[in-house]
């Protein structure tokens, strides 16, 4: 339970310092005094609302919650602090904590209920609750749910692959023709790696053929002086072998080059140039001859896969059939668990409805198209009438019974419930019924509620009055006399009548 709450500089509140007891705690006061603002400040300390106060702090006792990461054990005093300067910072027992981690910590301790939010009847949310309830009641449920989710995910994946094959199959001939065209286009050229470079080298030599032949012819005269040079070196007693080797090597070079030039004469020049042009077109498109060959191999692999598509399709169809059967069986197993949990929840809801002058709520499962959550959709009705056609008063009381029941399962004993205008726009009888339920619930939980009706206010264990003077809000606890006077004001307005006072006194005494 929250034993203390402290606040500095939050909108119209300059400073608040309050101490609380167990049970039902009610805040009342004129419209615009700051009751909802104060409630938001509480909720901000648990990460449920945005923090706007310069400083806020709360002390929690007897929480029955442990948090090993922060060294918190059951029954330890817990202090949560929010500090806002350049940015908002949160502290748990003087240790810094993120808003996300704080919210996770508070999930099993705090619940915020407000009637303006009707999403509590949403089927997806209720299915998730039934799953949590099923898991807490039967340890085998989680393994079934895990297997279902894995199988459904696999089925979705394989079904997607099969759909792609079916889509490809419809345009298979077009894909085959394109792959064949691309392969034949490259194969008609039949390129070889490095061929383009080699042919370009031949092209260069062809361009220089006449100049090279003329140069060789002019240089051949050197060989006429071979004998004269050798004799001169011998006469000088110099070894002429180096000259003989050099002149022989030069002669070989000239002869080899002349032979290669003779071979060029046998080439079809037009064919070489045409080949170079075709290889050049491949280089321009693919970047290199190597990449062109790789592209051809890729298209061949695609063509082969198209030929195998019927075989792959048959395999995937068999897998889909097997997985569909498995998923349907697991979905039915989940339904068994959820049906059982729905009965437990229905029993608890009807337990609270009897205090709200209602009965015969039914919570049941309807089949829907199977999805990631299964095949179950949760539906509710009251005395055989669906939610769309019951009165607003019945709707609000049924919702309170549902929220109270869910909180009973999900929030620890000694947990904390925040109720925002839970009895707004209700009749006296409906307000009295809600007060009865919340009084019963406050035996297990500490409940903070904003009230506009005398019935719930009269049932409060602690009653706080919120007021605003000259733009500044304040809050104070009321004693027994002050409580009766405030309830009288709620009944008759600022000019309290004797009848209103007597009614308020009798109402408080009856609670």
UniProtKB/TrEMBL annotation:
<keyword id="KW-0227">DNA damage</keyword>
<feature type="domain" description="Rad50/SbcC-type AAA">
    <location>
        <begin position="6"/>
        <end position="208"/>
    </location>
</feature>
<dbReference type="InterPro" id="IPR038729">
    <property type="entry name" value="Rad50/SbcC_AAA"/>
</dbReference>
<comment type="similarity">
    <text>Belongs to the RecN family.</text>
</comment>
<dbReference type="InterPro" id="IPR027417">
    <property type="entry name" value="P-loop_NTPase"/>
</dbReference>
<dbReference type="Pfam" id="PF13476">
    <property type="entry name" value="AAA_23"/>
</dbReference>
<dbReference type="GO" id="GO:0043590">
    <property type="term" value="C:bacterial nucleoid"/>
</dbReference>
<dbReference type="GO" id="GO:0006302">
    <property type="term" value="P:double-strand break repair"/>
</dbReference>
<keyword id="KW-0067">ATP-binding</keyword>
<dbReference type="GO" id="GO:0006310">
    <property type="term" value="P:DNA recombination"/>
</dbReference>
<dbReference type="InterPro" id="IPR004604">
    <property type="entry name" value="DNA_recomb/repair_RecN"/>
</dbReference>
<dbReference type="GO" id="GO:0005524">
    <property type="term" value="F:ATP binding"/>
</dbReference>
<keyword id="KW-0234">DNA repair</keyword>
<keyword id="KW-0547">Nucleotide-binding</keyword>
<dbReference type="GO" id="GO:0009432">
    <property type="term" value="P:SOS response"/>
</dbReference>
<dbReference type="GO" id="GO:0016887">
    <property type="term" value="F:ATP hydrolysis activity"/>
</dbReference>
<protein>
    <recommendedName>
        <fullName>DNA repair protein RecN</fullName>
    </recommendedName>
</protein>
<comment type="function">
    <text>May be involved in recombinational repair of damaged DNA.</text>
</comment>
